[in-house]
Amino acid sequence: MHFDWTMLNLEAYALKVAAALIVFVLGWLIAAWLGRAVSQAGLRSGRLSPTIVPVLAKLTRLAFLAVAIIAALNELGVQTSGLFAMIGAAGLALGLALKDTVADVAAGIVLLVLRPFDVGEAVDIGGTGGVVDAIDLFQTRLISGDGVPVVLNNSAVRTAIVKNYSRATRRRIELNVGIGYGDDIDKAIAVITQVIENEPRVLRNPTWLVSTKSLGENAVVLVARCTTSAADFEPTQFALTRAIKERLSAAGISIPLPQREVRLLERAA
Length: 269
Known about the structure:
By secondary structure, the protein is an alpha+beta fold. It has seven helices and eight strands; from the N terminus they run ααααββββαββαββα.
């Protein structure tokens, strides 16, 4: 009789384990399907940023997987109310121990909601420049101009000054040009102004400025400021720099190199 009772208990427990496994596997499959469905729906809608869609898909998958785990535990007869209390206490202790990580997650959520930048945009974050490669709940990843991956914690990104070059419609070019103290300043300004006027990518509004900026150790520093579209910024800057150098040299205006005066003193015998 005792043996029969034990076998019945084992069979009942085996059925519970089998039911819990079936619930968990079904929940896993449904969670994966829901994650893919959210991802595909978000990309098709066009209303959500491609940056936030993968995060929403991951959160959906994890949320339904948590429900599946709770349902599986219920099938095993586990009292989930007490489990929730233990998880809450453990979560509080873990949150205090990993407060920096929690701050990164909170900052990541803020970045995904406010969207100061998206994947594929060229940015400068606190002096670190590059193209945004990925944004998740913990980190923001950039690819620098020389192809090096850069990883930034979201909490640091959230408090940094962010320059989003991809969202700029136009940008200002500022060139500092040094000429010799013996050169004609008005003539140099006229040459630089003509170079800017002849560059078709320079915008006529706002107008450009060429003037004296400062008196350096070895040169009179002139400043040339003009505006171009964001897409034309670098090629226009490169073209102006070369053209100004060539035109100043052709006009007989020097661009002096740094100079140092060295004196040799003879020691008295």
